[in-house]
Structure formats: C-alpha cells, structure tokens
Amino acid sequence: MSSQQSVRSPGDFIREEIEARGWTQADLAQILGRPLPTVNRILQGKHAILPEMAIALGVAFGNGAELWMQRESAYRLSLASVPNDDAVRRRSRMFQLAPVKELQRRRWISDTDDPAELERELCQFLGIASIDDDPTIVVATRRSAGGDELTPQQTAWCCRARQLAGALKVAPFEPSRLDKCADDIRRLAAYPQEARKLATTFSNYGIRFVVVEPLQSSKIDGAAMWLSASEPVIAVSIRFDRIDAFWHTVAHEFMHIKFGDAVSIDTDLAGEDQVPSAAKSEIERRADQFASELLVPQAALDSFVTRVSPLYSKERIIQFAHRSRIHPGIIVGQLQYRGEVGYRANREMLVKVRDIVTTTAVTDGWGHSVEGI
Fold this sequence. Notes:
Blueprint: H1 3-6, H2 10-21, H3 25-32, H4 36-43, H5 51-61, H6 65-79, H7 85-97, H8 100-105, H9 115-126, E1 139-142, H10 152-166, H11 178-188, H12 198-204, E2 208-212, E3 222-228, E4 231-236, H13 243-258, E5 264-266, H14 282-295, H15 298-308, H16 314-324, H17 328-338, H18 354-357, E6 362-364
Helix pairs in contact: 3-4, 5-6, 13-14, 13-17, 16-17
C-alpha cells in the first residue's frame, strides 16, 4: 500500500468534525473567519494548514493546534517523493569518514559531484575496499584532541602522509644504525638552515620523511607510521612554525621509530596547551623523555636551571646553548615546557623553520603540491 493511501488528509478529519456537529462548510468558514473557498481547498487537500489556521481549528473544535499541525505534517510527508535511502546513507557515510570538501580543495581526491566516482576516489584514498569499512592506519600520532580514536581530519592527514611516503625511494632500513641517525639529527638541530638536510638524512637511514599541512581542526603535529615492518615513515605538519616545536616533534616521532612503536596517540607538544608528560601514556612519556634528552642533555639542563633560575636572561640562555651545541630556541622551548619561563618569553629565539624544511622535503601544503600523487 502506498503512503498516499495510508495517510488521511486533514480535510477528512475536518469533515468528520463538522458532520459530528451538524455544521456545513459555510458554517465553519464563518466560525473561522476565513473565506469559504479557502476552507474548501483545505478540505480537498489542495491548501496546506498553516500555523494560524491550525490554531483556529484547534479553538473551533477544542482539540488544540498541535493535533492539526501533526496531521498536516504527516499528510504532506506522505505526498513527498520517496528518496533513495541507500544513496543518502552512502553519501552520509562518506562525509562521516572524511572532510570531503576539504580533501577536494586540497586536490587529494577529484572535485566530482558524481556519488559513485566520489565513493571510488574516497575508498582509494583511505585504503579501504568499501565505505562501510573503517580506515586502518598503523600510526603513532601526536594529537591535540583527546580520546583513543583519530578524527576524520586526522585520519585523512595520515592517509595523505602515507600516500606521499609510499612514492619515496630511500636506502634500506637498518635499526642498528638508528643511534648514528640520532647523532645526525642532533647536529642538524643546532642551526636553523641545517633543517633543509633533514629529509636527505632520514632517507639515508631508510626513513621516509614528508611534510603535510594540517587540515582544518585536525590539530595534528606529526606521526610515525610503518608502510611495512621495514619501511618507517615520519610525517610532520609544522603546525607551530618555531624551531623548538619542529625539532621536538621530529625527535619524538623518531623515538617511536627507534623503539618500534606501532600505535600510539599523543597530545599537544608545543604552545600554551601542551600536556605534561606525567599525563601521557608510558609510550608517549618515553618518546618525550628520549626526544628531550636527544636535543638537550637533561642533566646539563637540570644544572643550568639550578644555577640560573629564575633569572633566565637572553645572554645566559645563549651561553648555555653554545656550550650544549644546540640552538637557543630549543633551550627556550624546553624551559617553557618545564614551566621555568612563560610561554611568551624569549620569543625572538623561536625562529621559523617551515620555509627551510619545505625547500627539500616532499611537502603538501602552503603552496607546495606533489603532482601525480
């Protein structure tokens, strides 16, 4: 039975009401203060019952305006074209899986309105066989959002990073060489311009390194993932364009690779909302601790704090940085993280490195694109 046959017109109920009272249509029109043709069209279902009319009918019959609005809504819904529920569900699912419009704007998928083509593109991008599947990314991520699940924006960011990394050619990965790699990272962090050598350095050790501009609201800083058991990837967003945040992110993700971490989620690493290590998981605390130690020997920093606190002048920070053979901005960043200086202290030392890094690293964002990937 069709919906038109199963739902009665409000006009049918009005007829029953006036017949029960012995009224005519003309009587009802006079009671309502409406023209007879208007009442006649309502009885025939040709004119919708608007809120004002529903109130008048409710008063006239003593059964309330809500009843007449409900009957009108039910009747109009029954006349509406029945949509393809599965098509609507599938489109809804696609937009739940990923920020489709932003992916199209970034040219990660085609800018198409064809549902079937969009579904194929999205499944290929996310690495799933069907939109009913959930994307799976073996990834250790530094996040700003709480919880154990990646958001659609974060998942899409990781998928793009994985996609770019898969096209890179690097040397064979040998875990036994990672200590030497750590030494090289430490040397590069001493001078801003040396950041341009990072992609090549990682490549020489079999680590794929990519830079992907974050998606809106993703708040992701970086990720460590594996294309296979012997193909590690480090991806960064350079969300905070400052030397301390960049190198701590790199060192943190490197430690995930060094320790063979498969799945891990972290929170803010820089900025005023950064999360203390004590509030993180054991895996993340370990990565943070070793990353900090890699960049600045913590015993030396402890000694510096004991001797200088709270008088952290620019000159003293620079002198300590020179003795430690590291950039002063990284010292400032670690002092900020420890709460020894305010977040806005010595900002002039927190130099920008994004433009330096992206001159040599495979980059998607800030005007950089990778053709064919």
